[in-house]
Specification:
Distance between the termini: 43 Å
Radius of gyration: 17 Å
Largest sheet: 4 strands, antiparallel
Shape: rod-shaped
CATH topology: Rubrerythrin, domain 2
Strand order of the largest sheet: 2-1-4-3
Order of helices and strands: EEEE
CATH superfamily: Ribosomal protein L33
Structural class: mainly beta
Strand content: over 45%
CATH architecture: Single Sheet
Number of domains: 1
Number of strands: 4
Oligomer: single chain
């Protein structure tokens, strides 16, 4: 008998950190799809109490 492939497939997802460029703090953790380009976002830095550029860094 042949197997049925009717089940849901798991999506490839990885956990990455968003690191503040000014302080080096790991302020945010996000889950995103594997591949693609590195994220660069303007996020809030609690230590500096202002918005700064955050870049993606893997575990």
């Amino acid at each position: 008998m042949a197997k049925k492939s009717g089940g849901k497939k798991k999506k490839k997802v990885e956990s990455v950190f968003l690191v503040c460029e000014e302080t080096g703090d790991y302020n945010y953790t996000i889950r995103r799809k594997v591949g693609g380009e590195k994220l660069k976002l303007l996020k809030y830095s609690p230590r500096l109490r202002k918005h700064t550029m955050h870049t993606e860094k893997k575990k």
